Amino acid sequence: MLVLGGVLVAGGVIVTQFLGSAVDYYCNVDEIGTRSGCDDDRRLRVQGTVEADSVELDRGTTTFVITFNGAELPVRYEGEPGGIFKECLPVVVHGQIVDGTLEGDRVEVKHSEEYEAANEDRLEPDPRCEPGTV
Amino acid sequence: MSAAIVGAIVEMDDAGFIIGSYVLTFATVGLFAWRTLRRGRRLAEQVPDEEKYWL
Amino acid sequence: MTTTDLDAGTPARTSAPRGTGTRATRVLGIATVVAMAWLVAFGLGFSPADRDQEESVRILYVHVPTIWIAYLAFVVTAISSGCYLFGRKKSLGFDRVAGASAEIGVVFMAVTLIVGALWGRLTWGVFWQWDARLTTTALLFVTYIGYLAVRRLGGSHHQRAKRSAVLGLLAVLEIPLVHWSVRLWRSLHQEATVLRTDGDISMDGLMLFSLFVGVIAFTLLYVWLLLHRSRTMFLEDLIEDRGLDQALAARRAEAEEVRP
């Protein structure tokens, strides 16, 4: 009985999380200010691809630009993003937009469902950074 | 497995998380398997063999 | 794991398996151990690192097989529940297979969740995020914990079987929701690589093979566990019935003593 009660409470918490967080998980960069729930005066979770050559680390603060569908957004993050963070990969940044810059406090790196063996000899630029492919 | 492969495994990046995930997996299913077997043996002693449909 | 972990007895003293084991389960147990050794060799050794994820992709070879076999286990629970509920004989054997399968599914799913959190920390940078896939998976997990709790509510074996069979048939409907959650909603979790409708699998050959080894290994383990666990449940039911019979007999004897 006790377990069943715990299960019901846990189920309730999960469904609440689902409706509150999972259904509207993120806004794409180009949807800020246009899609409902993506107004730039509230806390946002923004998805975009890290632009090539935009990542800079200066005294513990990382700055980079994320793009999606032609729109760009500069990001500032205290610290170094974890995971497999690197240029040309899509990320979700949690934070608030201040003066046109997203002040992020959580960076999540998305990875695709495509798996390819690492190749040391790869010289050509990552095709995922080319415009129009994302 | 040869020593070279074992060496490569231990030295890879994030070895703690990766090897840890395998260890956790085997520990969890191993514990469940062991508990099931032990319980089965204890209970089987209280039941005559004719009733065990698998024998 | 060694072979002695997985099957009955010390071979030096007796060659016939004890407890819930048979010759067949012993062979199956040895095959499972061999397949797991292959999984370690291919998953941690021979398979290549990924272009983006590097070494952390190796966690995939336990994360994906365990959740697939957990799904399989819950589908078996549902089918077995249906056989009990709609079969004319109302055989408790089906109920025990359903219960055993759900229990194994929960164990496998726990592994998926723990290992997935570690993989998430390495690739996403976070252990957990309430996105569509993770949230629906958590719901599936607690649903089956609830199923196992319902099985322990008490009553007769047939009451237990009927209650849990209804739940087992309903709970399985969550699986398609979990599987397609990554298409229905925006999520952090990636979409399916192998189980997709367009058949376009983007995966390096050796990686795919390692995943295949993992699926074989966990399938063998599942069947081995299912045989042992459902037999153990049979023994539990039998001994419970015996205990009840003995208690009744004792009470009857007591009553006759009181009556002169």
Oligomer: heterotrimer
Sketch the major β-sheet of chain B.
none
Broad structural category of chain B: mainly alpha
Low-confidence residue ranges of chain B = none
Major pleated sheet of chain C: none
Roughly how much helix do the residues of chain C carry, as a percent range? over 70%
> How many E-type strands of chain C?
0
Q: Beta-strand percentage of chain C?
A: under 5%
The shape of chain C, in one word, is elongated
- The number of distinct helices of chain C, counting runs of at least 4 residues, comes to 8
Terminal CA distance of chain B reads 37 Å
Tally of strands of chain B: 0
What number is the mean pLDDT of chain B?
Answer: 88
Gyration radius from CA atoms of chain B, angstroms: 19 Å
Structural class of chain C: mainly alpha
Task: State the largest interface.
Answer: A-C, 42 and 46 residues
Report the average pLDDT across residues of chain C: 90
Strand content of the residues of chain B, in percent?
Answer: under 5%
Shape of chain B: elongated
What is the third-level CATH name, the topology of chain C? Answer: Four Helix Bundle (Hemerythrin (Met), subunit A)
Poorly predicted parts of chain C: 1-13
